[in-house]
Design a protein that fits this description.
Strand order of the largest sheet: 9-10-11-12-13-16-14
Distance between the termini: 53 Å
Structural class: alpha+beta
């Protein structure tokens, strides 16, 4: 069904058309229309090429509905009956009279090239909406006119936002943010659900602060909400100054940012709200503390309303992933904490998301002064991501001052006392700050962007304030951040002086600015442990009796060389033999949980540590990298997926790498090979496993 023109002039006729087919033939096709409010009139629709019908016999039935005066809303539906012996009557919209097709006369397109959404609601819907309770999420029936291109019927819309900003009353005279949804078979821009934000009526007179925040996020390489300026009309009334059609975290968003991995778990981090009978609101901020109940079990109710699983449904009330995240995040600081958190959390992403919020002074979100206004996403075979959302209190619009300290007012005690403190993660936060002051916060970069947004708005006839105050705020903020991070940026990379030892592996230590992410030892990436904001440690194997030269190269997150140094370690100890000491100890080839397969190597020696660099696991296409040491009477694990292993088991600190091959569920042979010379290998251990007895059944799909 469609009507034409989409925006008829005052007193202009409207052609209503419907494509209809019935194998029994049709007794009649009629359009029932009425001015709103008012009673229905009926017109026959035909497919004979007359009365508004364009092509005879093409299955499209049409009728011409008489025009109405300007700002008159007309409702209509199409009704047909077939010629079956027991005739059936069908109507469109199917849910008539709750939903009707709506058209308004005398409306025109605004000047410029911004998008336009028009929402038509009947007088009955307007009355119901006016009387609806605050924070009610019931969708109100509407028709959506997208630009001057499409009419979408059977849609629904409502207010959106927290209890702090929602209101009640007449929707035609109330400026608020909206959600609207279109039918699955009639998508707009490929999507079904849309958020429309008024860009903080009365708070941001430039109408570009939040958009600028997301631009900064884009420049720092993290996910952001794409905002498109649009005009919004409710019936004949233009709402607000200008709205933003935001690509908020949803299925469409996940398809965009995580192609091929959009079937993970999405959670909204938000306040837990409670209300009394007078609708006075109480709220509790989200935190990732370890909330337990009887017997030490996780207290699901304490997480459920702060970490809201999306989409919300009773069947999706599975918080196991959140529990696993809480377990890791609440460990004592140290190497185990480092390994287990980094196995399941993309800490670079988290710290960049938190940095953006602190850079722009938006205290009203998770990772800063509140526990809300953020999403987090656990990919199917990846790590937890933080997703920016809702940066309303920013860049001088009720934000913190531009001189505010970058570590102040972090509400969640787990973040404040652990995540922000742990050197490896803290360095990522500092690094994001440094990239911001050297990139998007520079006057030339941000001024060009702000001026571009301003020009787009004014060219389209939208009256807003010039962004002069925003530019001043950003430059003041930039200078403040530069002074706060100077102690971790204005240093050089260096390594220790040459030394002698009788112990292997040896520990190298030195300093590095926060730009350094990776340290290569003789060209190979090594496992770095950060003991302070600028202090690092690396274990190196001493394979030569006598001199062992090392060249160290420091790289930033983009692979650029930041610094280099070299030293020689003279080794006076012996070279223990791995023969008879290193064995393949456990194989999880078909785990119950996805991505949790692994092979475990055990060191039978009670005294010797072995350097596995260059060793291979034949059958898995895996070669051990630099820094892969196995201590006496200890084991290491090679996992199919580090995030998968970290989620399934509680000892990610033993993982030394991820294999790129696969473990055959039906059985195969795995060999541990030690290099000898250039192209020769010595077999240290070999295991042929099977999915039949005597191999344990738990490893064949029944284990963890």
């Amino acid at each position: 069904v469609q009507h034409y023109p989409l925006l008829p002039g005052a007193n202009s006729n409207v052609i209503v058309s419907a494509r209809i087919h019935d194998p029994d033939g049709l007794a009649y096709v009629r359009v029932k229309y009425r001015p709103d409010p008012g009673s229905y009139f009926s017109l026959d629709m035909n497919d004979n090429g007359t009365g508004g019908d364009a092509v005879k016999g093409d299955g499209v039935f049409s009728s011409t509905v008489p025009g109405q005066s300007a700002n008159t809303l007309m409702a209509f539906y199409v009704e047909t009956r077939d010629l079956h012996a027991q005739p059936a009557v069908t109507v469109f919209p199917e849910s008539t009279p709750d939903h009707e097709c709506l058209v308004m006369f005398g409306q025109t397109m605004p000047s410029g090239d911004f998008g336009t959404y028009r929402f038509y609601i009947t007088s009955a819907t307007r009355a119901n909406w006016t009387a609806a309770p605050k924070c009610g999420n019931k969708l109100m029936p509407c028709t959506v006119i997208y630009g001057n291109y499409r009419a979408i019927y059977e849609c629904g819309m409502r207010y959106r936002g927290s209890p702090f900003i929602r209101a009640t009353g007449d929707p035609i005279s109330t400026d608020l943010a909206y959600v609207f949804k279109v039918p699955r078979e009639d998508r707009v821009l490929g999507g079904r659900s849309f958020n429309l934000d008024g860009l903080e009526f009365g708070r941001d007179d430039t109408y570009q602060r939040e958009r600028t925040c997301f631009w900064i996020a884009d420049k720092l390489g993290i996910q952001f909400v794409y905002q498109r300026y649009v005009h919004v009309y409710l019936n004949e009334s233009h709402r607000g100054v200008i709205y933003a059609d935001g690509h908020y975290p949803s299925g469409d968003y996940l398809d965009t940012w995580f192609p091929g991995d959009a079937d993970g778990e999405l959670f909204e981090i938000d306040d837990w709200f409670e209300f009394d009978d007078s609708f006075a609101v109480g709220n509790v901020n989200a935190t990732i503390q370890d909330f337990t109940t009887t017997g030490g079990a996780k207290k699901g109710a304490r997480y459920r309303w702060n970490w809201e699983q999306k989409p919300s449904s009773a069947s999706s009330d599975n918080l196991q992933s959140i529990f696993e995240l809480a377990d890791a995040m609440n460990l004592p600081l140290g190497r185990t904490y480092d390994a287990r958190v980094s196995a399941i959390v993309d800490f670079e992403n988290w710290m960049r998301e938190f940095a953006v919020r602190h850079i722009v002074g938006d205290w009203d979100g998770y990772g800063y002064g509140r526990g809300k206004n953020t999403y987090t996403y656990k990919t199917g075979n990846g790590k937890w991501q933080m997703l920016l959302w809702d940066l309303d209190f920013s860049l001088g619009a009720d934000s913190h001052s531009p001189s505010y300290l970058i570590f102040d007012e972090i509400h969640d005690p787990v973040l404040r006392n652990s995540f922000y403190v742990h050197p490896r993660f803290r360095r990522a936060y500092f690094c994001a700050m440094q990239e911001a002051v050297e990139g998007p916060l520079r006057a030339g970069d941000c001024a060009a962007t702000l001026d571009g947004f301003y020009a787009a708005l004014t060219t389209n006839g939208v009256v807003v304030a010039a962004p002069t105050a925003v530019k001043t705020w950003i430059e003041t903020r930039r200078q403040s951040i530069i002074s706060q991070i100077a102690s971790v940026t204005n240093i050089l990379f260096d390594a220790p002086s040459s030394f002698s030892t009788g112990l292997s592996p040896a520990t190298l230590s030195g300093t590095a600015p926060v730009k350094v992410k990776t340290i290569l030892v003789n060209g190979a990436e090594s496992q770095v442990y950060w003991t302070d904001n600028t202090m690092w440690e690396i274990k190196v194997g001493l394979t030569n009796s006598g001199a062992n030269p090392f060249v160290l190269t420091a790289l930033d997150r983009h692979g650029n060389v930041v610094g280099a140094d070299q030293l020689t370690v003279t080794y006076s100890g012996s070279q223990p033999s791995p023969y008879g000491n290193l064995v393949i100890n456990e194989i999880m080839y078909h785990p119950l949980r996805p991505y949790a397969s692994f092979v475990e190597i055990y060191n039978l020696s009670a005294t010797d540590t072995f350097d596995l660099e260059g060793y291979r696991l034949n059958g898995l296409d895996f070669t051990f990298g630099a820094g892969s040491f196995i201590a006496p009477a200890s084991y290491v694990v090679v996992a199919g997926s580090l995030p998968g292993y970290g989620s399934a088991y509680s000892n990610a600190e033993v993982v030394v790498g991820e294999f790129s091959g696969t473990l055959d569920n039906g059985g195969e042979t795995i060999s541990l090979l030690m290099p000898q010379g250039t192209n020769s290998w010595i077999v240290l251990d070999k295991v042929s496993y099977d999915d039949d007895p005597p191999w344990p059944a738990a490893a064949d799909g029944a284990g963890p």
